[in-house]
Amino acid sequence: QQSRNKVFYLQEFIEHYNRDIRILVMGNRVVAGMYRVGDDWKTNIYAGAKAKPLEVSKELENLAIKAAQVTKTAIAGVDIVESDRGYLVLEVNSIPGFTALQTVSDVNIAEEIISYFLEAI
Protein backbone atom coordinates (compact mmCIF):
# COMPACT_ATOMS: atom_id res chain seq x y z
CA GLN A 1 0.00 0.00 0.00
CA GLN A 2 2.77 2.48 0.84
CA SER A 3 4.29 2.36 -2.63
CA ARG A 4 0.98 3.14 -4.30
CA ASN A 5 1.53 6.92 -4.22
CA LYS A 6 5.24 6.91 -5.01
CA VAL A 7 6.83 7.82 -8.31
CA PHE A 8 9.17 5.35 -9.98
CA TYR A 9 11.32 6.10 -12.99
CA LEU A 10 12.33 3.24 -15.24
CA GLN A 11 15.03 3.63 -17.84
CA GLU A 12 16.33 1.29 -20.47
CA PHE A 13 19.90 0.20 -19.78
CA ILE A 14 22.03 1.13 -22.76
CA GLU A 15 25.11 -1.00 -23.28
CA HIS A 16 28.06 1.32 -23.78
CA TYR A 17 31.83 1.42 -23.59
CA ASN A 18 32.44 2.69 -20.02
CA ARG A 19 32.50 6.24 -21.26
CA ASP A 20 30.12 8.94 -22.32
CA ILE A 21 30.40 12.36 -23.91
CA ARG A 22 29.63 15.80 -22.49
CA ILE A 23 29.27 18.63 -24.99
CA LEU A 24 28.78 22.21 -23.88
CA VAL A 25 26.45 24.17 -26.16
CA MET A 26 25.82 27.92 -25.96
CA GLY A 27 23.16 29.31 -28.24
CA ASN A 28 23.64 27.55 -31.54
CA ARG A 29 27.28 26.57 -31.19
CA VAL A 30 29.42 23.99 -29.47
CA VAL A 31 31.98 25.47 -27.09
CA ALA A 32 33.80 22.34 -25.91
CA GLY A 33 33.47 18.62 -25.41
CA MET A 34 35.01 15.78 -23.43
CA TYR A 35 34.85 12.08 -22.82
CA ARG A 36 34.04 10.93 -19.29
CA VAL A 37 35.71 7.56 -18.81
CA GLY A 38 34.85 5.28 -15.89
CA ASP A 39 35.96 1.88 -14.66
CA ASP A 40 32.45 0.52 -15.13
CA TRP A 41 29.11 1.81 -16.40
CA LYS A 42 29.24 4.89 -14.13
CA THR A 43 30.76 7.79 -16.03
CA ASN A 44 30.06 10.61 -13.60
CA ILE A 45 33.19 12.63 -12.77
CA TYR A 46 32.16 12.83 -9.11
CA ALA A 47 31.86 9.02 -9.01
CA GLY A 48 35.49 8.69 -10.10
CA ALA A 49 35.37 8.90 -13.89
CA LYS A 50 38.17 10.80 -15.63
CA ALA A 51 37.83 13.64 -18.11
CA LYS A 52 39.56 13.00 -21.44
CA PRO A 53 39.90 15.31 -24.46
CA LEU A 54 37.40 14.99 -27.29
CA GLU A 55 37.54 16.49 -30.75
CA VAL A 56 33.86 17.11 -31.47
CA SER A 57 32.88 15.70 -34.86
CA LYS A 58 30.31 17.39 -37.09
CA GLU A 59 27.85 14.58 -36.28
CA LEU A 60 28.23 15.14 -32.52
CA GLU A 61 28.07 18.90 -32.97
CA ASN A 62 24.80 18.69 -34.89
CA LEU A 63 23.27 16.25 -32.39
CA ALA A 64 24.23 18.35 -29.36
CA ILE A 65 22.94 21.59 -30.89
CA LYS A 66 19.68 19.93 -31.90
CA ALA A 67 19.21 18.52 -28.37
CA ALA A 68 19.77 21.97 -26.86
CA GLN A 69 17.35 23.57 -29.34
CA VAL A 70 14.60 20.97 -28.82
CA THR A 71 14.78 21.48 -25.05
CA LYS A 72 15.07 25.27 -25.45
CA THR A 73 18.24 25.29 -23.34
CA ALA A 74 20.45 28.31 -24.05
CA ILE A 75 23.49 26.98 -22.19
CA ALA A 76 23.41 23.20 -22.20
CA GLY A 77 25.56 20.33 -21.08
CA VAL A 78 24.47 17.60 -23.49
CA ASP A 79 25.33 14.07 -22.38
CA ILE A 80 25.64 11.54 -25.17
CA VAL A 81 26.49 7.85 -25.14
CA GLU A 82 27.99 5.75 -27.91
CA SER A 83 25.96 2.58 -28.36
CA ASP A 84 25.42 -0.19 -30.87
CA ARG A 85 22.60 2.01 -32.22
CA GLY A 86 24.91 4.99 -32.69
CA TYR A 87 25.02 8.16 -30.61
CA LEU A 88 22.14 8.58 -28.15
CA VAL A 89 21.36 11.69 -26.10
CA LEU A 90 21.04 10.76 -22.42
CA GLU A 91 20.14 14.16 -21.03
CA VAL A 92 20.41 17.90 -21.48
CA ASN A 93 21.55 19.80 -18.39
CA SER A 94 20.40 23.40 -18.08
CA ILE A 95 22.95 24.23 -15.37
CA PRO A 96 25.97 22.26 -16.53
CA GLY A 97 29.10 22.02 -14.46
CA PHE A 98 32.25 22.67 -16.45
CA THR A 99 35.13 22.24 -13.99
CA ALA A 100 36.21 18.87 -15.43
CA LEU A 101 35.57 20.04 -18.99
CA GLN A 102 37.87 23.02 -18.45
CA THR A 103 40.75 20.68 -17.54
CA VAL A 104 40.72 19.10 -21.02
CA SER A 105 39.73 22.12 -23.12
CA ASP A 106 41.83 24.98 -24.46
CA VAL A 107 38.72 27.20 -24.46
CA ASN A 108 38.25 29.54 -21.48
CA ILE A 109 34.73 28.38 -20.67
CA ALA A 110 33.99 31.00 -18.00
CA GLU A 111 34.98 33.72 -20.48
CA GLU A 112 32.71 32.16 -23.11
CA ILE A 113 29.76 32.18 -20.71
CA ILE A 114 30.33 35.84 -19.83
CA SER A 115 30.62 36.77 -23.51
CA TYR A 116 27.43 34.86 -24.29
CA PHE A 117 25.49 36.79 -21.64
CA LEU A 118 26.98 40.15 -22.64
CA GLU A 119 25.97 39.57 -26.26
CA ALA A 120 22.46 38.62 -25.16
CA ILE A 121 21.79 41.86 -23.27
TrEMBL record:
Keyword field: ATP-binding, Ligase, Magnesium, Metal-binding, Nucleotide-binding
InterPro entries, sorted: ATP-grasp, ATP-grasp_RimK-type
PROSITE patterns linked to this entry: ATP_GRASP
Pfam families documented for this protein: RimK
Cofactor entry: Mg(2+)
Entry keyword annotation includes Metal-binding: yes
Example of a GO cellular component annotation carried by this entry: cytoplasm
Domain ATP-grasp residue range list: 55-118
GO molecular function, one term: ATP binding
Protein name: ATP-grasp domain-containing protein
Organism from which the protein derives: marine sediment metagenome
